Automatic annotation (TrEMBL), chains A, B:
Converts 2,5-diamino-6-(ribosylamino)-4(3h)-pyrimidinone 5'-phosphate into 5-amino-6-(ribosylamino)-2,4(1h,3h)-pyrimidinedione 5'-phosphate. NADP(+) binds at A155, S169, W171, T197, D201, G267, P268, T269, L270, A271, G272, A273. The lineage of its organism: Bacteria, Bacillati, Actinomycetota, Actinomycetes, Pseudonocardiales. This is Riboflavin biosynthesis protein RibD. Its EC number is 3.5.4.26, 1.1.1.193.
Length: 333, 333
């Protein structure tokens, strides 16, 4: 098996644990034996548990000797909650390490050097983009900035309305798109809404399957705003309520709680505040092929008064989600 | 050459004359000799001129004898401004006719029967969808309904704004998208704007090339609205001014002038009136990857007050136009 093929399998491993490892990164690892056959698979365990390399080495056992470890992130060389992975790789007799992304965390970095010093060959950058834009995207952002990665998700009509003029909005987007959002919710740490959304829609912000049953992993629901939550609201006892309108205060409070990736779900005023502060790292728009011609817009008060101040984005990806368009875009840097 | 390959060439022929044949359809024709070799190409000449079949037979000359005529529309069997194409095909000794689309016009239809009666084999439906959704789309709509085909085109930000809150809008969409619109303008018969747009933007509504020079074909500029055009406006002496707000009155006036295909360019109120009346046959949205958060919307007053009344569309096609999304959608029937 080539290192690229093994890395694709390591990525798949890491995808299985997305949302379950914060504040640690969701890493995937595949061990190839001396002949290049995959003999061990592993992914990061929840906080305090083993790292991906250790899980994969455990499965490989003695077959790891003389083999290759293919891992989505540079193996760590420091003692944290668990011993360094570099030691485990050396002890198992691994001869080659292939990783996708170097560790940007100064405390954990240096793994490649430790390995090289022990006579292990190290190759970096294999499927680097797939990993850094995929499973490790949020964690890399968090490691570099100290802030959780924010995806602003909204569903609107083709003409940018999130509801009709009477306020009805169920359902602008298709069942396929709504199911996709529930799957996404289960893969990240927190969902943020404004207190206005709680008053208007009384959301539960849970991740549910097609039959309406809760998925195994549930994100932390977060409500942002000064006013108390309505009595009897679904989020009254489950949500973290942050009494501020400052996106940076919100993100600092979440980072303290080990939140790496958040989904900003609304409403328009809160989205405007995050955009104005430059705290939207990705826009995920579900655009329904419908026209409303009236009704509230997806974003309000983004701080743009003239066209040259528009928040310019780069489209990363456009796909169909059932009948809807799914647009993923990032702010232009 | 297979009939499909020849039809693809006939479609390309017809594309070259789009916008130059109204109220006649832009038809393309390829003549294959007895051995299946393409020996003649033709497309509809401007009104009063020869039809595609006659043009292609002229080029093929005696090589047409025993051959096949591949044509995007069923050959006409009636005396209009020119003699029937069925006669020309018979005289040229054509043995087989392959067409994509049957003629919906009762006055011109019956061509297939005339040909069959003369011992010519006739096959219909080859690349039918490519033709009926492509070069003959507007004309087929016109032939069936008596109304010009209306494409509503707009450019907006991802959040559905056509301008910033101070009214600036140059340029929301990219140069690539703007150039595409100019090429589109040259391929249809008329462009409609509201008198509000004339006051706000003073558009020329010409089709220009990348260097700003006018293209060979120019659509008829049409201004809809009660108020007089401002003195000195670029459209003051060039535009047809229709003093009505009723889309059906606008379309009837244009149909009388032989207009088959129009581009509705704005503004939001006029777009709302056409949508409300069910007179938008296709929506062409250029969506710029930018967020404005304030500013006017693409459509106003579409007659939708609650979500279940939304004008539902089906997305036909999504492509990138430079950095912009280009979405083509049709009302759901």
């Amino acid at each position: 098996m080539t290192p690229e093929d093994a890395m694709a399998l390591a990525i798949a491993e890491s995808e299985r644990v997305r949302g379950a490892t914060s504040p640690n990164p969701p890493v995937g690892c595949v061990i190839l034996d001396e002949g290049g056959k995959a003999v061990g698979f592993g992914a990061t365990r929840p906080i305090g548990g083993a790292h991906a390399e250790v899980m994969a080495l455990h499965e490989a056992g003695t077959k790891a000797r003389g083999g290759t470890a293919v891992v989505t992130l540079e193996p760590c060389a420091h003692y944290g909650r668990t011993p360094p992975c570099t030691e485990a790789l050396k002890e198992a007799g691994i001869k080659h390490v292939v990783h996708a992304v170097s560790d940007p965390n100064p405390r954990a970095a240096g793994g490649a050097k430790v390995l090289t010093d022990a006579g292990i060959t190290v190759e970096s950058g294999v499927l680097e983009q797939e990993v850094s834009r995929g499973p490790l995207r949020a964690w890399l952002h968090y490691a570099r900035t100290g802030r959780p990665h924010v995806t602003w998700k909204y569903a609107a009509s083709l003409d940018g309305r999130v509801a009709a003029s009477d306020g009805t909005s169920q359902w602008i987007s298709s069942e396929t798109s709504r199911r996709e959002v529930h799957e996404l919710r289960a893969k990240l740490d927190a969902i943020i809404v404004g207190s206005g959304t709680v008053k208007a829609d009384d959301p539960a912000l849970t991740a549910r399957d097609a039959g309406g049953m809760p998925l195994a992993r549930q994100p932390l629901p977060v409500v942002v705003g000064m006013s108390d939550l309505p009595r009897g609201a679904k989020l009254e006892h489950t949500a973290l309520h942050l009494r501020t309108h400052d996106p940076d205060e919100v993100l600092a409070a979440l980072a303290e709680r080990g939140v790496v990736e958040v989904l900003l779900e609304g409403g328009p005023t809160l989205a405007g505040a995050f955009l104005r502060a430059g705290r939207v790292d990705r826009v995920l728009a579900y655009i329904a092929p419908a026209l409303l011609g009236d009704g509230p817009a997806a974003v309000l008060g983004a701080g743009v008064s003239t066209i040259t101040d528009a928040v310019r984005l780069t489209v990363e990806d456009v796909t169909m989600s059932g009948p809807d368009l799914r647009v993923s875009a990032v702010p232009r840097t």
